[in-house]
Design brief:
Layout: E1 2-3, H1 9-15, H2 26-32, H3 37-40, E2 42-45, E3 49-53, E4 63-67, H4 79-100, E5 104-108, E6 125-130, H5 137-142, E7 144-145, H6 151-163
Parallel strand pairs: 1-7
Antiparallel strand pairs: 2-3, 3-4, 4-6, 5-6
Length: about 170
């Protein structure tokens, strides 16, 4: 499926082409960068978990809940970390509804490349805001998915909500 407008993807895609990809974990690299949270699209983080905007969103506001430590499989998470990820996910779904006024949410995960995981080596959960009419003839016939809001706008809209949470 083609993306009509996603200018923030260019830098990432160009730095991870098949010819020069180092095999480093995208999330671990992201967490180790010295850039600001805003530059990395990190909405929330604590010692165990981070909530980040997906650089390749299904819909505007598509979030990823990611453990800060590199763990490949869901069953390898400690009870404490698994509980933390679910708690953060629950709060994040509430924030998505408040900040973006979506009508519904998809929540889940893809484990393994065959299941659709884009980053199968580091477990993460997806929170996808859904809107009435967010799929239709354009997606089906045109094989393209329009994303109407850029990442910077979504980040600025959502960040204040994440600043207010205490877990």
């Amino acid at each position: 499926m083609d993306k009509l407008y996603a200018p923030w993807r260019d830098q990432y895609v160009m730095s991870h082409t098949k010819n020069d990809y180092s095999g480093a974990c995208v999330f671990c690299t992201l967490f180790n960068k010295q850039e600001s949270d805003e530059e990395r699209y990190i909405l929330y983080k604590d010692a165990m978990v981070a909530v980040i905007l997906n650089l390749y969103p299904y819909n505007a506001g598509h979030l990823l809940v990611v453990p800060q430590n590199h763990v490949e499989n869901l069953y390898e998470l400690s009870d404490e970390l698994l509980s933390r990820m679910i708690k953060i996910s629950a709060v994040s779904t509430q924030i998505v509804k408040q900040a973006l006024a979506c009508q519904a949410i998809n929540f889940g995960a893809n484990f393994g490349r065959i299941a659709g995981a884009g980053i199968p080596e580091h477990v993460h959960l997806h929170i996808v805001p859904r809107y009435s009419g967010d799929t239709g003839f354009f997606t089906v016939i045109g094989d393209a998915k329009p994303i109407s809001i850029d990442l910077n706008s979504v980040y600025k809209k959502m960040k204040p909500y994440f600043k207010e949470i205490s877990l």
